[in-house]
Amino acid sequence: xxxxxxxxxxxxxxxxxxxxxxxxxxxxxxxxxxxxxxxxxxxxxxxxxxxxxxxxxxxxxxxxxxxxxxxxxxxxxxxxxxxxxxxxxxxxxxxxxxxxxxxxxxxxxxxxxxxxxxxxxxxxxxxxxxxxxxxxxxxxxxxxxxxxxxxxxxxxxxxxxxxxxxxxxxxxxxxxxxxxxxxxxxxxxxxxxxxxxxxxxxxxxxxxxxxxxxxxxxxxxxxxxxxxxxxxxxxxxxxxxxxxxxxxxxxxxxxxxxxxxxxxxxxxxxxxxxxxxxxxxxxxxxxxxxxxxxxxxxxxxxxxxxxxxxxxxxxxxxxxxxxxxxxxxxxxxxxxxxxxxxxxxxxxxxxxxxxxxxxxxxxxxxxxxxxxxxxxxxxxxxx
Length: 383
Hints:
This protein has 2 domains: 2-125 and 370-379, no CATH class; 129-366, Rossmann fold, CATH 3.40.50.880. Helix 2 (46-55) runs antiparallel to helix 3 (59-73). It is of the alpha+beta class. 37% of the residues lie in helices and 25% in strands. The protein is built from 11 helices and 17 strands. Mean pLDDT is 85; it is low at 1-25. The protein is elongated, with a radius of gyration of 28 Å. The strands form 4 sheets. Strands 5-4-6-7-16-13-12-9-10 form a 9-stranded mixed β-sheet, with helices on both faces. The protein has helices spanning 2-43, 46-55, 59-73, 102-111, 140-149, 160-172, 201-210, 219-223, 229-238, 340-345, 353-363, and strands at 78-86, 89-96, 115-125, 129-134, 152-157, 183-186, 214-218, 248-250, 257-260, 276-278, 285-287, 296-300, 311-317, 321-323, 327-329, 333-336, 368-379.
């Protein structure tokens, strides 16, 4: 009898141990499924596509792609739920299941006896910026690259009538702390924006800045808008530079590298002091004098044509600056003293492309936040 009791006890212990091992293996397998699935999405570039869909507001596309690819990767008996963002306040409640199944799937998710979770991180814009951009034909490719790399809504204009109509509307419809456009972007306007009869329009670009708007401008824009001190001087001061009715345009070596000298600025936040930004010297660079030398955040340490180095590369007029003729300008303004869009997209020798996109993105006010990608998996029936 004692032997029988002992054998029964041993069999019970072995059975419990096997169940425990099976349970552990089942849990580990679920964890592996979840981690492997996220890894495959990452390695194939699918996760980047999903995140880009979310950046640009195409949530249904993100859901559909995630559902399709996860269903291919995971075994048929494994169900899943993906969340991007804070689970208590997610950016997208469920990438999968789709919205029509949420209640059923959430109920199945909550009843699941065993759930595994895998986590990765990604970056998303804190908000989708709305930008008005003056876009000549040479700028189209640069704008396209900018759209791909950031969650930015860009309205493109290339006629004076359309441009000034948008600026007028932005001023008329402005509400405190709610600009119609977060920024006006003029990368390379090789034209007089305010010809005869429209000279006073230039002042409206400063009025727009007074209405909580940012202004980001390329060097050739000021070069072609410097005729009248009583109008253009408004614009120049708003961009943090001293007015000059005959600015100097230069090109050629050694203007092939620009050095970051203030990495603490919002424009250069992803760089270190001393980092070089490549520039195609076939395109012009412009000589502008900052109102305050501390506003220069990047510069060329070499200068051609017997000019005195260093030359200002990027000037950031800070937020809260008191404009001498129009008052306080709440947001900053950024002047790039070169033709960055052309350097970045030159058909034969593009230089500094990724850097120019990054610098412009942050100059326009882009801000990133780190978000969690959470994938839950469990064994269950399809709902």
